[in-house]
UniProtKB/TrEMBL annotation, chains A, B, C, D:
Residues 57-175 form the HD domain. One of its GO terms (molecular function) is dGTPase activity. InterPro entries: dGTPase-like (IPR050135), HD/PDEase_dom (IPR003607), HD_assoc_2 (IPR045509), HD_domain (IPR006674). Pfam families: HD, HD_assoc_2. GO terms for biological process: dGTP catabolic process. SUPFAM superfamilies: HD-domain/PDEase-like. The lineage of its organism: Bacteria, Bacillati, Bacillota, Bacilli, Bacillales. This is HD domain-containing protein.
Length: 434, 434, 434, 434
């Protein structure tokens, strides 16, 4: 682990400075694979709702690294025995690289194309890349170690726990960063305060008991961000358009349609023929350029959707209370009966899967396996561990939550064209009765 | 001027909220021409130096609008007689639209291609566009009015002055916004304080005398931003690479080189055959996608430069004090003599043309014509006007400033290849003697 | 209602600027009665825990005025019909003056001396004071109107509701202000966002439905402030010392003890012989000066307590879980049995009366009378009103909360003196067994 | 140097947290002498102008300690050879204690009473105090060492330089703190950035060359604070009243006047009979309580001045340009001729002694001796040192500055009484001609 002769810094709006002390970290940041993350936005299409949200996964990855560095530095300074000092470098690498496999608009593309960005992170780390060469130079199985942390199979559970839990550096950075760039200051929490209450303890990162309110503060900011930013109805609308573009283009691709222009990596994405070098060519500039070109495609459906995305002419929506899901379904069916295209002009959305997202307490008889992230544990003065929702009514209140509304998104122009065939009730609901 | 039934807001990290009260403003924001500004970064290649600087001209344009709105609102509330109330709407439109003509990486492209974004703003406003249709609906010559404010020929000089001066809403917003997104908090000044000291006065916007320190504060933040952000040597390096890419590609284009792929609008840019619809297709996604594709072009020079830009492998530099310009020239000549390509592998840069940029006081016998922006005037208690640098030593100190250094940027790999032909002095200077 | 020729401002760290537009408001601020609030700290003894918390009720009162001004200004700008415009001035006066009757360390003194600061606010407004003369000049019964708003008997319920509810300008200002001065940034919420969702509606101030999360944000910041600041165990300790000083001094006073020096207004406070002019002489400088003098009194108990307060030698404490109240009682009894003074050297504290403090939802069959503040109501799209805890699980979670601990505060030096008489269990509990 | 078992923190609004790691620092903070600083405001009477400025010297002293701690910690982390590691503890003590000798409203009292707070700091450190006992326990001459740093005679010049220079921790903390509490955000600079450019170098703290703009930023914030806060005309007015009270009371005291009540320590202050224990009883609560009592003294002059101070009825002022000093003098003389009291009802003020205050460059042939603080030096890449104003035009511009105005402060009521004897010109100047 070679130290840089002089510490280097990045100016960062969220953490003020990001400190790099190791040659390896510096070199990893300067690989083409890591630089590519500059061309992937952290929040996908959210910039169409919050215009400040243009920040990239590059800046987020640096932030995750920095928070991890601070946590480890505090563990070292306090000389906690449960922290394995020799794991520092591998831990920092995993923190820095865990998002390396994110593609353009990953959230939406993953839903449509069924692939997994964490798997791609590992492919890149273990493949024929500059990142791999740098990691291998430390020791031959170093890339595998880093990848196994991302895969959560690393032999030291505390390292996995530090990089991936329900209060990990990843979540802490993106909450603060997304709040900063969107301007949603209700998403802010006191990072220094949270870092001060973390403790390494028997293979886990836990929270000392007096830190309960600090965790509540963090979880409430998460709660606010979910409702105000991540589940914003306009963002959902732009994601729906984006998904429909991908579905239509893939459909055309499979049907042998001849595109005026389609970039090779996107073609291979649709055909599920991606390898690492091609995958690394996928970025949001490419996708957006394809969409811009497709606004002039012959296929009107595709051209229209792309034009909507490019010029931000999103679908409108009406809402239905949670208990009236069937009404939403009925309304959709009537619109289809009147002639609207159920695949491309309509969609029912129910985004409020909160328990999973804001905080999930372990349910009895259910393992934490799969993608589940470990819960937040309080370290009692006598040494026992208590899952936080058992102690905090506030956390409890957002753990079991199932509020929210169904939303029916629709193409308003298309609806107007068939409005003469709609019943008065639906017309009123859509505001087309005037 | 139709008011919206209910005020609409944009969440903005810099101004907290941006308030829209007029239907026209709302509609203008929703045109494809204005939405295109989302795809143009405010600070060009600066994101390669300050990773947070991903913000778009879209957000800046909203900010300029908002500051203008607040200034006018304060003028109205205080019932100043020198403010022509009937100019509000045209003024807000000009503030919102003044950057409409910015192209991708405008600063660099304008230098290479010799065109002017303000002229393009006017073309778009006066051309066959949605923006034009909306403005024309107010009254037939409304687009011309808006364009004439941008051209600084509008009949009401106070409106031109509000939209364009050395302390206009444009500069105020970009200083605050660039400081926010880069994280360079030394670029911050107290906007509320500055707004409170502005006064409309006989066809100009002036500053009441007690506001002198507020203006100094604003100008010093400008000064700091110039040195720390706008003239940052790494940013200059990325701009040099960018310009060289454009020069090489244009050269190839003119010489009949057959690109594997070159987007139509870029081809027409090189051939100076741009019309408004094609111009509107130019955005940074397109340029970046072209660069990415060109990394695989047969022309090694172009491919190499594009690869540098994409993966942020920028040119190194060495500095020469202002008084040693000739040394920089000698050094360059020696490198050329040793075999380096003077057009593509080397460049001397001297960015510190501060008097023009930070603040320019009017020089006797010199008109303010051309692109010169009016100076900042203090309104004395007895009603006279004094140019600020005559009253403030601080402003004076940054007005006549000619410090700064020459920098010789060079392709380090190319220099290494010919290093055996270099004299020891140059080798030492480039750090290649070890 | 005479407007000032030119708007005046106060620079305020919390609201940036406080704007005064009316001559009356300006004059009220400049009365001796209002200036006296500079000598009363907003948070009593909290500065002994959070050293930044030196801010005065003067600054808080200006802040309450400013928030009220902004709310009214927004109601006027939006031309809401349910807002009675003619009530503006009386409402601003009540907001500004509602804390006029606060005495030194009011919270503690009120507990010991059984008086009510709101009653004193009314006495000052209606008594022979400068404030009264200024208000009477508007119209003879104007002081009574202002006082009746504070007494919550004013004929326009919406005005009372604006000045006093569970989300009034008072609470909003003190949360933000206390968070700012203590440095507890987890107590911050987005004021602009909250103000944007308030609506006047049929004699009440309500929240439009989409504002629910904004209210949650506000209530959670309140919740955090209660646990982190207002109920901080060290602050409680200083309040206990303060109360014991007052009790002892009053006891001495009643028993005919001859003080070396006791200020006249404090003597009359103990004798319950206060009139308005004497009351106005009570400030924290006087109380602190008396305490400093009393460190040299012959009565050792009083002198010791005063010395503790002055030099911040507070009582230590041990905690007992809520369900173990009896243990706390037993421990206290044992200490008394061993010789400690139950009145002055010991106290059990249970401060967590949260439902009342953070948010209280109306209980069925219980009126809102007395000092109860009206609940927060959501305005449904169809016009109905719903109390917020019925809609928000988060609010619900902090409404019925009864967590918290008992704390036994004790004089450590006194405990050491009698420690040889204590059982081992108690010794261990107090950490005196080493 | 015993480390605390667990690091302790103070929540601080300016530095977020203040970290205490040594038992000695913790114990020093808890002495009565240091706790007394809670009762001395950092900015004297400034709270009468900026209502937020209630912060104490206690919080400032903690801040100076914290900045010093951070500087040393960075020096240690970077392993700079020119930093003598063994000096850490003595340096931290001096930083913490350097303001220990400040009295109530020190600035004003020092002017009137001719004493020196730094001398008092040393008296307290070397006298029979708890602070002395704690320091002596380290080693017998430790108190002397600490005092000699404050006296600037300590054998290690770099330690003196760290604690006292024109860019020392004292100035850095008070600029940030005063900006925070007044709300004057134009007084903010980027502390992290400044700390990053400091270097220990041959017995001095210098600034690495690339840090020049960071220093400019710091000095400009200082410049803004001087003009906007420290020299604010209203603050000057309150200081004038305060000085006149002290002068009058001292005069009465010397003339044998029998006060209804005068606290012993104040009496001894007037008689210059202060010893350490009595000095420690002087705090602002005591002074303010005396003033409040004196509003009822028989001496009308004293009673009137005290009433003005207590109720903030300050003197009005008129301004004269720097070149018209004689006019100010003439005006004053005329008012005296008409019957005003030259000692108590009038004062000419010229506060703008900027070169001394904002930044003073060393003048040739002039030593740095006495209270002069060392200049700021840039460390050139080749190792030479350059005084900053030789390199920075901005610093140069505020170094030789002699702008500013004379102000004639006067008792407006007294002026009105004799206004019939004044010439029309003076009447107009005072606005008494209407």
């Amino acid at each position: 682990m070679t130290r840089l002769e002089e510490e280097k810094v990045f100016k960062d709006p969220v953490h003020k400075y990001i400190y790099v002390q190791d040659q390896l970290i510096w070199d990893l940041i300067n690989t083409p694979e890591f630089q590519r993350l500059r061309r992937i936005r952290q929040l996908g299409t959210t910039y169409l709702t919050f215009h400040g949200a243009e920040h990239s996964r590059f800046s987020h990855s640096l932030g995750v690294y920095e928070i991890t560095r601070r946590i480890i530095s505090q563990f070292e300074r306090s000389e906690y025995r449960d922290w394995p000092r020799e794991e520092k470098l591998v831990c920092l690498c995993a923190a820095l690289l865990h998002d390396l496999g994110h593609g353009p608009f990953s959230h939406s593309i993953e839903e449509v194309m069924e692939f997994d960005h964490e798997e791609w992170s590992c492919h890149i780390i273990e493949g024929n890349t500059e990142v791999n060469r740098l990691l291998s130079a430390v020791e031959p199985d170093f890339p595998t170690k880093v990848a196994s942390i991302i895969r959560k199979t690393y032999e030291q559970p505390i390292v996995v726990n530090l990089v991936s839990s329900q209060m990990d550096a990843d979540r802490m950075d993106y909450l603060l960063r997304d709040a900063y760039f969107t301007g949603a200051n209700y998403g802010t929490f006191d990072l220094d305060r949270v870092l001060r209450v973390l403790r390494p303890h028997q293979g886990r990162i836990v929270v000392k008991e007096s830190g309960m309110h600090a965790v509540e503060d963090y979880l409430m900011s998460r709660y606010q961000m979910y409702w105000q930013v991540y589940f914003h109805p306009v963002t959902r609308s732009s994601e729906i358009i984006l998904r429909k573009i991908l579905l239509r283009a893939q459909e055309l691709c499979h049907s042998g349609y001849s595109f005026r222009w389609i970039p090779e990596p996107i073609m291979r994405l649709f055909r599920q023929e991606l390898d690492v070098p091609t995958y690394l060519k996928l970025d949001e500039a490419l996708v957006q350029t394809a969409f811009a070109a497709w606004t002039e495609e012959e296929d009107k459906l595709l051209a229209g959707l792309c034009s909507r995305f490019l010029h931000r002419k999103l679908y409108k929506y009406i809402t239905f209370d949670r208990e009236h899901e069937s009404e939403a379904q009925l309304c959709l069916e009537e619109l289809v009966a009147a002639g609207m295209n159920p695949n491309y002009e309509l969609e029912i959305d129910f985004p409020y899967d909160l328990p999973y997202h804001v905080y999930r307490s372990p349910v009895e008889g259910q393992s934490e396996g799969g993608r589940g992230k470990p819960p937040i544990l309080l370290l009692e003065p006598h040494g026992g561990l208590t899952e936080i929702s058992r102690r905090s009514d506030v956390v409890q209140s957002i753990t079991g939550m199932h509020r929210g509304q169904y939303r029916l998104y629709y193409d308003e122009e298309a609806a107007k064209l068939i409005s003469h065939r709609l019943k008065p009730g639906v017309l009123t609901r859509l505001g087309l009765d005037a």
